[in-house]
Amino acid sequence: MRGVLKATAAAVSALLLGALATTAAAAAPVKNIVLVHGAWADGSGWKGVYDILTHDGFHVSVVANPDTGLADDVAATQRVLDLQTGPVILVGHSYGGTVITQVGVDPKVVGLVYVAAFGPEVGETTGQYLPKGPLPITVSKDGLAFFGHDAFMAAFAPDVPEPLRQFMADSQAPLAVSVFTAPVTQAAWKTKPSWYLVSSKDQIIPPDVQRMYARRMKATTAEVAGSHVAFIAQPAVAAQLIEAAANGVGK
User: Fold this and answer.
1) Cβ–Cβ contacts within 10 Å for residue 18, how many?
2) pTM for this predicted structure
3) Which among 25, 103, 139, 228 is least surrounded, fewest beta carbons within 10 Å?
C-alpha cells in the first residue's frame, strides 16, 4: 500500500511540474513571428516592421506568397510555418488575413494578428464584404489581375512617400481573381487569440468592415489613421501590436 501511495505521489508531482512548466512556457514571450503579405504586393512591404521586430529580438520570417490562388498561398505559408521551432505569432495584411485564417489552425500558431486584413468565417470569401461594383483591375488571359496604376497611387498607398509608392505600383505582383470567391474551410481566429489593426482611412477594405471582423473575432483592437498600407507608412504602430500579441499570449 505504501508503495502505491509513493507511486501516486510521484505521479502527481510529475503532473504538477509538467503543468507549471507548461504555464511558464505559455507565459513567456513568443519569439517567432511569421509575416504574410497581401494582394498586389510582396514581402518587401514588411521591411520596416521586420527591422523593428528583429531589433527587438524576435525571429521574423516573411512569406513569399505566389498570389496564384488561395490553396497555393496557404501552402506557401505552411512551408514557412514548418520551418519554425516553437510557437508562432502569424500576421497577415489584407488578403494575407484570409491566408492566415485558413492556415492558422496549425498547432504552432498561438496567436493571429490582422493588419487591415480580411478575416472571413468558414464558408465566407475574401470578396464577400467588399463594396459592390467593379474593381480598378485589368485581368490577364490566365486569370491574374493587375491593380490600376492611378488607383494604386491614389487609393492603395496614398500615405507612402511618392517614390516608393510609384515603385510599389510598378512592381506589383498580380493576383489570381479566384481568391475573391474561394471560401475558407477553417477559421483559425475561432480558436486562437487575435489582434487587429484597423486602418481608419483605408480606401480598399472599408474601415467599418475591418471593425466588424475585429469585433466578430473578439480581437484586441487598435486603430491607426492611415491607408490600406499604413503598416508601411507607420511600421512602428504595426510592430507595437505584433509585439503586444507576442507578449500577451498565454497571460
Assistant:
1) 10
2) 0.88
3) 25
Instruction: Name 197's bridge partners.
Output: 115, 222
Digit-coded pLDDT (tens) for 182-218? 999 999 999 999 999 999 999 999 999 999 999 999 9
User: Can you tell me whether residue 126 is helix, strand or coil?
Assistant: coil
Angle at 227 between CA 152 and CA 192, to 5 degrees: 115
In this structure, what C-alpha cell is assigned to residue 29? 514571450
Q: Cα–Cα distance between 51 and 54 in angstroms, integer?
A: 5
Cα gap 131→138, rounded to integer Å: 18
Q: What is the DSSP letter of 39?
A: T
**Whole-number Å distance between alpha carbons of 175 and 189:** 24
Examine the pLDDT at 118 and tell me if it is beyond 80. yes
Type of residue at 245: A
Q: 151 has which bridge partners?
A: none
